[in-house]
Amino acid sequence: MTTPDSLDARAGATRQLARGDVPVLQRASLREQVRQALEEFIVFGRLAPGEHLAEESLAELLGVSRQPVREALQSLSAAGFVDLRAGRGAFVHEPTAREAREVFHVRALLESDSCRLAAQNIDDDGARRLEVIYAEGHEASQRHDDPRRLIELNRTFHRTMTEIGGNRVSIALVADLERRAGWYLATIITNRAPSSWAEHREILDAVVARDADRARDLMLNHIDHSRDLLEFTGQ
Amino acid sequence: MTTPDSLDARAGATRQLARGDVPVLQRASLREQVRQALEEFIVFGRLAPGEHLAEESLAELLGVSRQPVREALQSLSAAGFVDLRAGRGAFVHEPTAREAREVFHVRALLESDSCRLAAQNIDDDGARRLEVIYAEGHEASQRHDDPRRLIELNRTFHRTMTEIGGNRVSIALVADLERRAGWYLATIITNRAPSSWAEHREILDAVVARDADRARDLMLNHIDHSRDLLEFTGQ
DNA sequence: TTTCTCCATACTGTATGCAGTATGGATGAC
DNA sequence: GTCATCCATACTGCATACAGTATGGAGAAA
């Protein structure tokens, strides 16, 4: 990812036949690839808050034309990663602690509700999936695996829980909020606490026991804990 | 709005100096104007669910080039009004009753929480603003004003309440959800009940009395009522 | 020195061009 | 009649072109 090398040599859209019986694998559009690349650049600090994102130079950097870059920037704007100033173009958004708190608050609302729903909907298959993720995450956190992987596992646990909740609108919103939250944590917080798999264990137990209210409350507290990490940074 | 007449004769962006001391009024970009126009066409049924939105013909209809149309379609896709199928282009989204229920559920979560926050934050100015809106809305609903206006006033009440709550992330999400909800009500429901200003009155009283929990619960029930309208349509 | 004006520069916003792909109907095989 | 194949058509996705605007600094005026 350090050498962007242009996004892809084979830019003329082709398809790949999957080995299994999954019918066809859609190659992502250029604008989607650009979007993901830019989001990574922003999240990992290679593009700093406030920085001006000139379409032409990004296009050159990524080996594409301005068009897909432009569309990617608009998408990132809707997701809160960049700001579009009329006539000035795109700038990396400068998150504030207030905004971070607000995102965590909304996330807590939506995820705790999804957790409540999950406790109502859970079936054996869902319970198994959660157990697998828990086992993996718990072990990885014990071993102090690479932080990138820990973040990924943590996110997988939350995402899966929300998916089991089953409200697709909520699922989509939470996915966005999680990505923003990850950025804030990486940007604002210097030293991130490892995600608490002890709390995940409690939540999981409540969900499997179909104790909806308890599951909801536990998830609420759980996310509030991560939000509390933000409080140290003031303003 | 029936004769799109091209969006604007003076397409070369110019600015207008406001009469008052509001400094400058930014003319919206073409893509934003197109976005709004298309959203109206969709919400008011001029573009029907499932319809293929070919960029060229829309561009011609609106008197602009494909480019701003394309960007507007992508924005509308993010907002849930159109679906983009890779290689096929944009189609007006076909809402389902399930999806509508989900939107109302999330809306209820976010707005009831904002209402709780509003009860904590409210000041004299906020209370005055709410009272004015209530008075206007109550009167209009008594008079059985034009439905379009009733919907507008209803939305204003909710938007103002959310704004007083003060969580900007929530404000932005709720604004999106309200627009979708409005579409669903117009599309799915044949006969929409007038918004209940009696319930608004109760909510407003609780907020002004700073009774946060009661305000929250009332708003939750209030939105559930409108959601219940959806239940008649099955699936 | 300070402030205003003007202009060169860089970049956005919109339009147009072009290559490649999805689709549906015509055609032919069975 | 049914099914597979092929091709014309329409439209997308990306690239490029062009016009117009925001900005910052040079130079003039005070």
Automatic annotation (TrEMBL), chains A, B:
Gene3D superfamilies: GntR ligand-binding domain-like, Winged helix-like DNA-binding domain superfamily/Winged helix DNA-binding domain. SUPFAM superfamilies: GntR ligand-binding domain-like, Winged helix' DNA-binding domain. Keywords: DNA-binding, Transcription, Transcription regulation. It holds the Pfam family GntR. SMART domains: FCD, HTH_GNTR. It comes from the Bacteria. One of its GO terms (molecular function) is DNA-binding transcription factor activity. The keyword Transcription applies. Residues 28-95 form the HTH gntR-type domain. This is GntR family transcriptional regulator. It comes from Jiangella asiatica. The lineage of its organism: Bacteria, Bacillati, Actinomycetota, Actinomycetes, Jiangellales.
